[in-house]
Amino acid sequence: MTLLLTSSILLGIFSFFNLLGINQEFAIFQLVFLILGAVLFIFIRVIDAEYFKKNYKFFYWLFIFLLISVFVIGEEIRGSKRWIDLYFFNFQPSEIFKVFFIVFIAKFISLREEDMDRRRVFALALLYLFIPFFLVFKQPDLGNALSYVVIFFSIVLFSKIPKKYIVTLVLIAVLALPLSWNVLREYQKQRVVSFFIPNDDFQGTNYNMLQSKISAGSGKFSGRGLGYGTQSKLFFLPESHTDFAYSSLSEQFGFIGALSVIILYFLICLKIIKLIIKNYTKIDREERYYLYYSVGFLSYFCFQIFVNIAMNLGSFPIAGVSLPILSYGGSSIATYALGIALMPIDRV
Q: Reduced to 3 states, what is the DSSP secondary structure of residue 161?
């Protein structure tokens, strides 16, 4: 518990000072979000995870309703409808729903994996994945839509559902991959193309990736210093407080700061892995739920860290995936705080 919470707090401190060097207003709001995240963590721990586990169906369908509501009352920002304006902050249902999706799939599979007709169980679970995936993809938000897929298959791989179903589905997906190109938006196609042709169109589709790599490299070993990140301060680096927060941090705090953040993420992952190892051999349904929840949260956490940092370093196509705790935003912090609070940390 101590290691996990200490690492989370230190990441929050990094986030605050990184934003302070970019925009003081963002830093103040982020500090408020971090404090509210801590309050949320304490509140959920007091309520107890059992409440959310027992009401897993209610929370799943509640957030499906919210995802549908986004298309009606959501605020459109840069061509995407992902947020509901709550006046004091923009609420992103697709972000917070990740935790409740983990709870739902973990509970559903732990209850149904012993059924004789496992093919039907897998088909139903797949349907429960497709609904939020489709709604998030249509916002459009491919990065977050894929995070639901990663969560789902991570849990299923650890479950007792026959792996042949997964292999079959993966083969179908691979064969259908060329067709998926036609369902992507034009800007998504441009991002993929720009990743494979990085030396073309520096002022267009490759601009963000180029500026991100310049920002990350300009910090060198010890960084330019707090508030002296020219790429961020002079607005050469777009979304320096959200999608490219890691590049702006690398510019201000250098290799030392960037490596420190990765180490803190590693310590959090290590804590969760210990929990997974402890519960891996359990056969009780309640214990299996804890295993599946831990696996689901770890997959979400690692997926977002890997994609975001790789994107910032130009090693992955640009996707709208936030970096947990470090990126600016109340929904992202609430998701992490909620996810950690629902985890059986005291079992390690």
A: coil
